[in-house]
Amino acid sequence: MKNWRTTGTKAPFAKITLLVMMVLTSYVNAQKREISITEALELSYSSNEKIKQYDERVQQRVYENKAAKGNFLPALNLLGGYTYLSENIEVNTSQISSSLDALGAKYGAAFIETYGEAIGLSGVTAESAFTTLNTVLGQFPSYPNMVVDNQQFPTAALTATQPLYTGGKIIAAKRYAKAELRSADIELIQVKDEIANELVERYLNLVLLKQVIKTRKEVYKGMLKHKEQTERAIQLEILPKHILLRAQVAVADAQKDLDNDLNKEQLAMMVLRTTMNLPDSIQFKVMDSITYRELYLDFEALLNTAYTKQPILGLIGQKEEMAKQALALEKSKFMPTIAAFGTYNMFRDELPVVPPQFIVGVQAQINLFNGFKDIHLLQAKKHLQKEVENAKEYATQQIHLLVQSNYINAQNQQKLYNSLSATVELAKENLRINTRRFEEGLGKSIDVIDASLLYEKAKIEQLVALNSYYQAIANLYTAVGEPEKIILFINT
């Protein structure tokens, strides 16, 4: 499987230099600089806002992946506060009177056992003394509550927790975060592929319009010349006056078609500028034409490349990993969680009840029952895995269909272009013959007009077929995950 990790999309120095040169060219020389399709793609990669958006998403996943590593490390927290009590704390002695009586009797019996002879109680045993004292103390009135004279005190403690065993939860979370990072990488590649395909399509459309406009101007120029020849022939009374009307209509139609395509060219320029994210102040032009090159395609090789490099399959592969780790997370809920902890208490002497300075230990926790929620979630994640498996199978079938349809389309467009080449040559020769016959007074004006329109139609159809041929190849390379390959093919 292809390594989907990518670097950032920051513009290198060469791209920045290109932009500076374009700005200087537009303001100093007031001339349009030609941008090759390669330069246009580099500008799109460095300036397109959608690519920047997904690059930021990658950076977000990078830090989330780093954050997931922190679950393996101990957590250290400093807790601090200030407490004020409306009244002093009191110990309710009525609830512990029996314990106090027993404690007093115990100490009294120990005293008699030790110093009984000195005070004239040498014959009294410790057991009898304890029983007598405990009975006597039990007859006394209740003890008054003991008051802790401290209504306000600060608290501070430093605590540390280190997970020892979580049933695989931390490892699954880390792998899940890594899969999300790889998914973001692949999404960025997918967006760049889409932008590359969009750039090629819009660039080629602009080149096509330039060629169509060139053909329109050629036909328009021919129509004007024919109209002038018709006017001279009418002045010489060789042709009737109504023949001029046909020539004038043909010139008007040619002018209309030319103006329409010029407007389309401006719109296509705006669309291409948007893909490259160039400001209106930077003037540019594209290459004048693209020559035909025959391409030999190996369908099986293309299909194998698609299975390896198609971003969709890469995304589904990461979805599989995420579903696997989500299942592992649910399984971890049925395992115990074991963690070591430690606490260092500060301001101990300020507290009503003095805690020890250090507390360390190990704790284990396991859920016994939560309404079958974990069991149901575990089953849900199992079905999620099966869903992703089915999605992968479906996507593989669709990619096979996509590659095959674009492969067939590229072959059909190639055949169409080759067949139109002969048609254009015949139409051009037909126009030359009819123009010559008219100039020699042997042909009709309508024949020249029809021949011009026939040549224009055939030539434009050939240009459209050439554009469709390259567009089909671009779509094919995009389908297999190598959209930039069409640029190498065009530039060669």
Molecular structure report:
With 492 residues, this protein is α+β, with helices and mostly antiparallel strands. Residues 1-11 and 24-30 have low confidence and may be disordered. The radius of gyration is 45 Å and the shape is rod-shaped. It folds into two domains: 13-75 and 169-336 and 371-491, Up-down Bundle (Outer membrane efflux proteins (OEP)), CATH 1.20.1600.10; 93-144, no CATH class. The longest helix has 67 residues, at 169-235. It contains twelve helices and eight strands.
Number of helices in the DSSP assignment:
12
- Written as H for each helix and E for each strand, in order along the chain, the element string is HEHHEEHHEEHHEHHEEHHH
- Helical residue percent band: 55-70%
**C-alpha-based Rg, rounded:** 45 Å
* CATH domain topology of the largest domain: Outer membrane efflux proteins (OEP)
Coarse shape: rod-shaped
* Uncertain stretches: 1-11, 24-30
Tell me the count of domains: 2
Beta-strand content bin: 5-15%
The total strand number stands at: 8
- How would you name the CATH homologous superfamily of the largest domain? Outer membrane efflux proteins (OEP)
Strand order of the largest sheet: 2-5-7-8
CATH class of the largest domain: Mainly Alpha
Question: How confident overall, as mean pLDDT?
Answer: 85
Major sheet: size, sense and barrel closure?
Answer: 4 strands, antiparallel
Distance between the termini: 29 Å
Q: From the 3D coordinates, which CATH architecture of the largest domain would you assign? A: Up-down Bundle
Structural class: alpha+beta
